[in-house]
Amino acid sequence: MRSRWFDLLVLAASRAAMGAQFQVVGALGPLLIGTLAADWTELGSLIGAYSLAGVFVALPAGWVMARLGDRRVLLSGVGLMAAGGAVLALAEGFGMAMAGRLVSGVGGALLAIACAKMVLDRFSGASLAPALGLMLMAWPCGIGIALLVLPLLGGDWRAGLWWSAAVCLASFVPLLIALPRGDGAGAAPARRGGLLRSEWAPLLTAGSVWGFYNAAYVVALGFAPAFLVARGWGVEAAGAVTSLIGFAILPLLPMGGALAERAGRPVAVTVGCMLGMAGCLLAVVAGLSPWVFLTLFGVLTAPPASLVMAMVGRALSPASRAFGMGVHYTLFYGALAALPPLAGLARDVTGAPAAPLLAGVAFLAVALVALATYLRVMARRQG
Predict the structure, then answer these.
(1) Are 313 and 57 in contact (CB under 8 A)?
(2) Which end of the chain, N or C, is less surrounded by CB atoms within 10 Å?
(3) How many CB atoms lie within 10 A of CB 154?
(4) b vs e for 76-104, b when ≥16 Cβ sit within 10 Å of the residue's Cβ?
(5) Smallest Cα–Cα separation from 158: which of 87, 83, 53, 81?
(6) b/e map of 186-217 (b: 16 or more CB within 10 Å)?
(7) ∠219-222-224 over CA atoms, to 5°?
(8) In terms of C-beta density within 10 A (0-12 exposed, 13-18 middle, 19 or more buried), how is residue 182 classed?
(9) What are phi and psi of 339, to 5 degrees?
């Protein structure tokens, strides 16, 4: 009998490849200026294209997965990631580079949706939160691997781009060979009509929690260095302290949600962690130690990840998961495409370096309101 945990390991390896591919443009950014990107705006466009593609692909991907099956969509996604990575590595200018990133982003969206659905099909009850946590942890692990490996290539940016394409291709092989055909024990024939009427409200509210919570995390990663530099920090020191956000999330990401579920307090832990995240950002804005509070911000970000994804799973019946994951990831990619620019706009309008971090606090407040709405809707549905 095949092991669902082995399936999870294979899926997590592909998500780690996706994280490495996502990060490669940002990690090689200064080397790409004047080669594949004329300026920082074009570089930012290459970075954002990976997520922007998901806004347009996620919903159709859920519909296609309901008809063609999880495995086909998953393999197509990883194949497109490898192909897009190769196009990027071969690019001689911005246009071809953008095409490669968009193809990779489409593949990444297919992979993310298929992985989430397949984990929900294979795990339930007490095992769901740790399984989701391990799946989610693979993404930042891939980002970290890219940050460690790429500097070892000695400034050869094209070798770095080829490396990211090769990582995606390598992750395709175990998926093709080792991931068995067929669905998990919790799967059900897909409902071709989409979602049940009673599933829309909880799914949209849980997806809103996920989108605004992730946007706050991305804003902290993206804007904390500029805030610290404006406060007189050196660029290297500001980057180093901000990197703690990414590293601090890893220890609790696989088990933080599971411990909260075992304690019977998943909602309380989710609310407490989000309030704590907001408090950490406010503490940094107030001038308290970024070394302490940005690290604590990363730690507190970990437990809600698997807990909120489990809420999404509870909102959907097994027959609705394929299409429902498409809806969920449409909200997620839309939030990542729209909300960080709003945080940047807040600084442009006010001129205050702290404005983006305060926008992150506002995003967390919206996430908490969405969480309260989700709980009310679910209580009404179950009552």
Answers:
(1) no
(2) N
(3) 8
(4) bbbbbbbbbbbbbbebeebeebbebbbbb
(5) 87
(6) bbeebbeebbeeebbbbbbbbbbbbbbbbbbb
(7) 85
(8) exposed
(9) -75, -45
pLDDT of 192 reads: 56
d(CA 267, CA 313): 15
Q: How far apart are alpha carbons 262 and 84 in whole angstroms?
A: 42
Q: Give 173's contacts (C-beta < 8 A, 6+ positions apart).
A: none
Contacts of 281 (CB under 8 A, 6+ apart): 216, 220, 293, 297, 357, 358, 360, 361
Q: What pTM was estimated for this model as a whole?
A: 0.80
Coil vs helix vs strand at 37: strand
Q: Which residues of 117-126 are buried (b: 16+ CB within 10 A; e: fewer)?
A: bbbbbbbbee
Q: One-letter amino acid identity for 85?
A: G
Q: What DSSP line would sit under 285-345, residue for residue?
A: HTT--HHHHHHHHHHHHHHHHHHHHHHHHHHS-GGGHHHHHHHHHHHHHHHHHHHHHHHHH
CB 101 within 8 A of CB 90: no
Secondary structure (3-state) at 349: helix
Tell me the β-bridge partners of 37.
33
Give the pLDDT confidence of 316-335 residue by residue, as tens digits.
888 888 888 889 989 998 88
Retrieve residue 176's tokens.
């093709």
